[in-house]
Design goal:
With 660 residues, the chain is of the alpha+beta class. 31% of the residues lie in helices and 24% in strands. It folds into 3 domains: 127 residues, NTF2-like, domain 1 (Nuclear Transport Factor 2, Chain: A, Roll), CATH 3.10.450; 181 residues, Penicillin-binding protein 2a (Domain 2); 328 residues, DD-peptidase/beta-lactamase superfamily (Beta-lactamase). It is built from 21 helices and 25 strands. α16 runs parallel beside α20 and α17 crosses α18.
Length: 660
């Protein structure tokens, strides 16, 4: 039966065309076939007709098909009755993965009169599907990969850049499929023979196709030569990724890797394929949308001429949109120098411009080499990194730690702000320990005695724990907690990378003993290296604590905490921080050629009663005269190398190296 046309409708070409167009818009290819002329049916079986239409519709992701049919004039109607044939103009419009396609197509109709039935039929060809398509023509979908944006430092030096890589593949018809060859490929590429078989057995693979197996960096030239000596193994150049700083900036950049099946499920449909690379960590992941760009797509009709040549006609094109670069405030030279200062030790540092809030370095040691992850890391190497005792995957720059005595200038600022501390008052302290009677055996210990009442200046210079414990207790829970909250504790740092919130205690509450210990950086109080660095900016900016920035822009500096202390208080604190280095606990940072101001800190970590204390050393320092860089450095396990004095010496060396 011919569609839903009545016997009378079948004798009307406009009615037949109208019904055909309706079925076409509904993509009812089965019913459409009943309208085809005998000559069309001779060229296309029903199965071929349906499969050809369905495949192209699916591959091009065709949608929103609209077809408008022109009306015949009376003259055309009269002529159609005479000639038993007519063409009706149609405008065809639909959306595809490469954008809109709009074209005009004539529908040829032929009137066939038999003893059984009289009717108009459609003389169909493949040009109904796409403009210019013939039976021998092929539909080619070409995808143009966008250039991934690069991650650059403040001077446009690369932290993550595009590079050439080698995509290793197999031509099945040239490959012997010998087990020994397959095993050799497996060993060289750190990929299982099972995975190789899966790639070769994929449904799309043809004997003469290049089947991608793995990608290797250009540095692996020796490996490339060995691989290409195997029959059927070849390569093509592709775009790769390179991280020049390797471990030194791994926790900033992160890395890219092949998109997983689970990731594909959560990504916008059509934006990624199984072969694409995607940000897996760090800024590569956080700014994936910015860096990735948008894939370009061409829909081409490939027609083979009688001469054997092929002609390509592009009928739809979605231009490729390359990813945008990201320029950071980071300075690769400072980042690398600080990372190298750690040698084989663990820890974290934040370096900032204390006058603008720009982050110049954000270091976590140890790191890992992101270049190992781009093209697939072996299970053995992954396990080695995961089981490493120093936890190279732990991003210490995002984590918080006990600040030790580096918090004392901050405690002083809180006291100055709430007027429980001033520059002239002094405290009588006797001996090396102090504690209240109701505390029982709990005592606060200091490293040296004083022969006179202790002022804030003396307490900072000699790093007197008892002074700051007493002042915290005098302040009381409410004022101490409020002061720390006003300086950013228990608050998200307004920064482009997530940093753990600094905490006052595990539950946000303090008993008196915990309050005393918190005053000098022990107890349960914790800060990130970035938060400590930012806190010290108030002393260099007349009491304003600056907001950090990671993305380079032309905006003026932004204040995070305004007028936390006043200008006179800030200037006096700067004087004391210089004395800490020239006369006090940070003498290892003292240098005749480069005057440095800052504060040491040693955080004692008691893991169990049976084990000795582990000490994390801190130093927060800056050039006294220039005040153009401030480094907050923490190194773990410094109990046997000089504690915080060791760290102060490291910061001095880095600052001198930068200044030279």
């Amino acid at each position: 039966m011919l569609g839903s046309c009545t016997a009378q409708d079948k004798k009307n070409p406009e009615k037949v065309a109208e019904e055909f167009v309706s079925l076409w818009e509904e993509q009812d290819f089965d019913a459409m076939y009943t309208y085809l002329s005998n000559s069309s049916k001779e060229q296309y079986s029903k199965k071929e007709f349906i499969e050809r239409n369905e495949k192209i519709f699916k591959d091009l992701q065709m949608s929103d098909l609209k077809i408008s049919k022109a009306d015949l004039t009376d003259k055309q109607r009269k002529k159609s009755k005479e000639n038993k044939e007519i063409t009706i103009d149609t405008d065809i419009n639909f959306d595809t993965i490469a954008g809109e396609i709009d074209f005009t197509k004539e529908i040829p109709l032929i009137f066939k009169e038999t003893d059984e039935e009289s009717m108009w039929r459609i003389d169909w060809d493949e040009g109904f599907i796409l403009p210019g398509l013939t039976k021998k023509g092929k539909v080619d979908i070409t995808k143009i990969q966008p250039r991934r944006g690069e991650i650059l430092d403040r001077n446009k030096m690369p932290l993550a850049l595009n590079d050439v890589a080698y995509e290793i593949g197999i031509i099945p018809e040239d490959f012997s499929d010998d087990k020994s060859d397959k095993q050799k490929i497996s060993d060289l590429l750190d990929i299982s023979t099972k995975k190789i078989d899966e790639k070769l057995d994929a449904s799309w693979v043809q004997p003469d196709y290049f089947v991608p197996i793995a990608t290797i960096p250009t540095a692996a030239d020796d490996k490339l030569e060995t691989l290409t000596n195997i029959a059927g193994v070849t390569y093509q150049e592709t775009t790769g990724r390179n991280y020049p700083l390797e471990e030194a900036a791994a926790h900033i950049t992160g890395y890219i890797g092949q998109v997983t099946e689970d990731e594909l499920k959560d990504l916008p449909k059509g934006e990624y394929s199984a072969q694409d690379l995607i940000g897996k960590n760090g800024l590569e992941e956080m700014y994936e949308d910015t860096l990735h760009g948008e894939e370009g797509i061409e829909i081409n009709i490939i027609t083979e001429k009688e001469s054997g040549s092929k002609e390509k006609d592009t009928i739809a094109e979605k231009p490729v949109v390359n990813g945008d670069n990201i320029q950071l405030t980071i300075d690769v030279n400072i980042q690398e120098k600080i990372y190298q200062a750690y040698e084989d030790k663990s820890g974290t540092s934040a370096a900032i411009d204390p006058k603008s809030g720009e982050v110049l370095a954000l270091v976590s040691s140890p790191g890992y080499n992101p270049n190992e992850f781009i093209y697939g890391i072996s299970d053995d190497r992954w396990d080695q990194l995961m089981e490493h005792p120093d936890e190279p995957f732990l991003n210490r720059s995002r984590s918080t730690f006990a600040p030790g005595s580096s918090i004392k200038p901050i405690t002083a600022a809180v006291g100055l702000a709430n007027e429980t501390i001033n520059f002239t008052d002094s405290v009588e302290i006797n001996g090396l320990t102090w504690g209240k009677e109701e505390w029982g055996d709990v005592k606060v210990t200091r490293v040296s005695t004083s022969d006179k009442p202790v002022t804030l200046e003396d307490a900072l210079t000699r790093s007197d724990n008892i002074y700051f414990a007493m002042k915290a207790v005098d302040m009381g829970n409410e004022k101490f907690i409020k002061g720390m909250q006003d300086i950013g504790f228990e608050e998200n740092i307004p920064f482009q990378m997530p940093i753990e919130n600094s905490q006052i205690s595990n539950d946000g509450k303090l008993d008196e003993i915990l309050l005393a210990n918190s005053g000098y950086g022990q107890g349960e109080i914790e800060m990130s290296s970035l938060h400590i660095a930012l806190s010290y900016t108030m002393f260099l900016n007349e009491g304003d604590m600056l907001k950090p920035s990671l993305l380079l822009n032309k905006n003026e500096r932004e204040v995070w905490k305004e007028n936390f202390i006043n200008k006179d208080q800030a200037d006096q604190m700067k004087k004391y921080l210089r004395e800490v280095v020239s006369e006090g606990t940070a003498k290892t940072a003292n240098d005749d050629d480069l005057h440095i101001s800052g504060k040491t800190g040693t955080a004692e970590l008691k893991l169990t009663k049976e084990t000795a204390d582990i000490q994390n050393g801190w130093f927060v320092g800056y050039p006294t005269d220039d005040e153009d860089i401030l480094i907050a450095m923490m190194i773990e396990g410094v109990e046997d190398v000089g504690a915080s004095s060791y760290v102060a010496g490291k910061v001095k060396d880095v600052l001198k190296d930068i200044k030279d």
